[in-house]
Write a structure and sequence with these properties.
438 residues, mainly beta, Porin, globular, signal
């Protein structure tokens, strides 16, 4: 904790070095600039102290707590309006790069294409665009396709990216889509060709009584998302959805979305037969981001998610996990999808989730305190709640181009005694992030 405080003071002391205006890396392709090609660069450095889950080991040693430094996201975007109606977009980079990244393999194998798509605008304005390629465009929620350089909280609610690194490439899928804005409505429909679970770099779980992604068969995935915009329209350049406009727009939206894929998961029934399950998720949500009379701004969100992966599906996940092992066994831990050590907790499962966040941008435009709550009930955890809370503070050196974020997270842990799952101690994580975005 002392190290984090010293780093926070140091970063604030040098903030003036980054307070100058930055010109966008934008190149005109015609005299008016309506045709252009642009590059952006983003880096998010995390410094973190974490209370470990029971039994956690790091390089073979027990670790009740950890301290780590990592690159949460390092990205390059290349995009542009090539003609009046054609748009090109690429994103390249890496994620979750810390000392435990690929600890049993080659740490140098990290960057990859996140997005590579082309889009054609059929209508005179934004009423209808069609596109295709590798894209994060999604039908479930705004947080399923977040603009990570503009989010209010230090990190996104990852559970909303429901199949991340299972049957997609870090939430991206090979897709064709239609999207547009008609009056106050913003819509998108996506047809995706998901990756097989066998290509995600991990050994798929064995067929068992709980559902997991099937290694047999292949079906396309359908997604749809619809927003009603009461006041200003949201940005429509890329499929990504802005986290906060920092009071520059008056946004009040309601939205609904869904994802469906037939026979995506399987399990073994009590009689030994193999049963296939459709994956069906849906969500309803509301988003507000608007200036206030005192020159501050409010940012707020609430969403309800109904997630159905089949019988008792549950997956643990720890963002940029600082550990790499556990002394626990199948007899005293929940086995299946994802490691239970380090900072992991049940993040994905068949059940229900309510996610909410609120942030208040002070009139100085420099500070934004925020709070988030993820309230989940997953079938496999026998009625216990999986509630995670975050409190944080953003310090905007130059808007989202240069900012510091300090985040405190409180998460659950669980104990397994025979067939009974019990709530364990609640554990904490303190993270300092330095974001630079050009």
């Amino acid at each position: 904790m002392k190290n984090l405080c010293l780093l926070l003071v140091s970063f604030i002391c040098i903030q003036q070095s980054f307070a100058q205006d930055n010109e966008a890396l934008k190149f005109k392709l015609n005299e008016s600039g309506s045709h252009y090609f642009q590059a952006t660069l983003l880096n998010q450095v995390w410094v973190r102290a974490n209370e470990s889950n029971p039994g956690t080991t790091v390089e073979g040693n027990l670790a009740s707590s950890t301290f780590d430094i990592g690159l949460r996201r390092t990205r390059m975007q290349l995009f542009g309006q090539i003609t009046d109606r054609t748009f090109l977009y690429f994103q390249f980079g890496q994620n979750n790069f810390n000392a435990q990244y690929n600890s049993t393999g080659n740490r140098k194998i990290a960057p990859f294409f996140h997005d590579a798509l082309g889009e054609y605008r059929i209508s005179s304005k934004n009423q209808l665009k069609v596109g295709g390629g590798l894209s994060i465009i999604s039908g479930l929620s705004r947080f399923s396709q977040p603009s990570i350089g503009t989010i209010t909280s230090m990190d996104v609610p990852v559970f909303a990216q429901t199949t991340v690194d299972q049957i997609d490439q870090f939430s991206r899928k090979l897709s064709i889509y239609a999207r547009g804005q008609i009056g106050k409505w913003d819509y998108r429909y996506i047809l995706s060709d998901p990756f097989p679970i066998s290509s995600n770099g991990q050994t798929p779980p064995a067929l068992s009584s709980v559902a997991n992604f099937s290694t047999k068969g292949h079906a396309v995935q359908q997604q749809a998302y619809l927003i009603y915009q009461f006041f200003d329209h949201e940005n429509h350049t890329t499929p990504y959805m802005t986290g906060s406009y920092l009071g520059t727009k008056k946004i009040v939206n309601i939205a609904a979305g869904a994802i469906y894929q037939a026979n995506a998961l399987w399990n073994k029934s009590a009689t030994g037969d193999t049963t296939y399950h459709a994956m069906m998720h849906w969500a309803v949500e509301s988003f507000v981001d608007m200036p206030l009379a005192n020159k501050g701004a409010i940012n707020a969100y609430v969403g309800y998610f109904n997630t159905n992966y089949g019988t008792n599906y549950l997956r643990y996940n720890g963002v940029m996990n600082p550990a790499n092992g556990s002394t626990l066994t199948a007899s005293n831990s929940m086995t299946g999808q994802g490691p239970t050590y380090g900072n992991s907790y049940p993040m994905f499962g068949t059940g229900h989730v309510i996610y909410s966040q609120v942030g208040y941008l002070l009139p100085s435009k420099r500070w934004m305190p925020y709070a988030t709550a993820t309230l989940a009930q997953y079938d496999r955890i026998q009625g216990l709640s999986t509630n995670t809370y975050n409190l944080g503070l953003n310090y905007y050196i130059q808007g989202n181009k240069s900012k510091l974020s300090l985040d405190f997270q409180n998460r659950p842990s669980y104990q397994v005694q025979g067939d009974v799952i019990k709530a364990g101690d609640r554990l904490n994580t303190l993270t300092l992030q330095f974001q630079l975005f050009i």
